[in-house]
Amino acid sequence: MTSRRFLLKLRKTFLTSFLSALALAFLLVSIKYIYIPASPSQDPIIEPFVKHNISCEGIYNMDPVEVGKSLIIRRKTIEEGSDESLIKTTEDCPFFMKHRGYGNMCISEEEKDFPIAYSLVVHKNAWMVEKLLRAVYSPSNIYCIHYDQKSSAQFMAAMEGLARCLPNVFISSKREAVYYASISRLKADLNCLSDLLISEVKWKYVINLCGQDFPLKSNMELVSELKLLKGSNMLETSKPSDLKKERFLYHHELQEASFEYKKLPVKTQQEKTQPPHGIKMFIGNAYFVLSREFVEFTNSSAVVRDFLAWSEDTYSPDEHFWATLVRLPGVPGGLPRSHPDVTDLMSKTRLVKWHYLEENLYPPCSGTHVRSVCIFGAAELYWLLNYGHWFANKFDPKVDPVLIQCLEEKLIEKQKILQKQTTLICPKG
């Protein structure tokens, strides 16, 4: 369904009856939560997993009463599990794996023969990272977690707990202190990619994620989509505007900033030299879906090493590094320099909704905005799952926990439907 048709449906189906449905919800609906109890052997202070008593099918079909209930839930202060509670929960790995569903996952022959690698670059909110990991998890895949060296000790310990409990999850052997828009963000992914290349799992493609991403496809769907790439890569790559060119035409210095990441690259008047080896610059974003052959090439190429070194003092090099490399002549799965721009809406790697493009390219944000980016709300569930992208950004349980719960439910449902059509390999016992 197109954005325009979706918006029309939203207005006709939802907005016209919203006020009456919301009033009905306030009068008749009692919002309840279902708790999964903690293990008796654990400290009772551990927060339980919260599941909201709501129909995700109703949310998906834009039922006014269910959407109204989700808005009521959003108004309540819901305490998410603390980082400390994930540390405590992962002290008992069998309990953790059982109650989060890792231990009894079956896989198809197709999934077994087509493992996927993931690079997760994260820095806060351990339970949200766990939810993301659970949503993309398959026993046949391999997962590298890079946590920011500036993260809290509790967050780091929670990530170590995940890696200890899950046999195909590991912590990056080299970790960066990640600063916004600096080379450290790119190096975090590169550290994971180097580790993934020497892992025993012979993965076919690698996907990078951050802590506010979430998948829109089940693992079986992703395997099918990745096979269709036939060795090519999936990422945004476009000719830079004059404004974007300033990111790499001038030297940038990392300076102190009153910002979440503490420091920020600041443009100077010092002009940079031209890119090495006659490289022609392209711009994109930090998100990629890369073939193993492409990653092996970039890991061993002297040209790539020189380009990485040249990019050290640029602004947000992760947003030009991959977009440019995929255009290098002769790279595995690359694109010719003459190939038309591949925009973020054409690349399926990440669906991001920008405030200034709403109602033109996509329907309005039903959550909230942070720095012009939509943090999605429950009313966008149908649009997210049917737009065609593989992942989306941004999600936050403090903004809308119902959307995350319903995405989890829908992905599990789709995985089960697809697995019914094939032979499965299941854990013994």
Automatic annotation (TrEMBL):
UniProtKB keywords: Glycoprotein, Glycosyltransferase, Membrane, Signal-anchor, Transferase, Transmembrane, Transmembrane helix
Keyword set includes Transmembrane helix: yes
Keyword Glycoprotein: yes
A single Gene Ontology CC term: Golgi membrane
Membrane disposition: Single-pass type II membrane protein
Pfam families: Branch (PF02485)
Name this protein carries in UniProt: Glucosaminyl (N-acetyl) transferase 4b, tandem duplicate 2
Organism domain of life: Eukaryota
Subcellular location: Golgi apparatus membrane
GO molecular function, one term: acetylglucosaminyltransferase activity
Annotated pathway: Protein modification; protein glycosylation
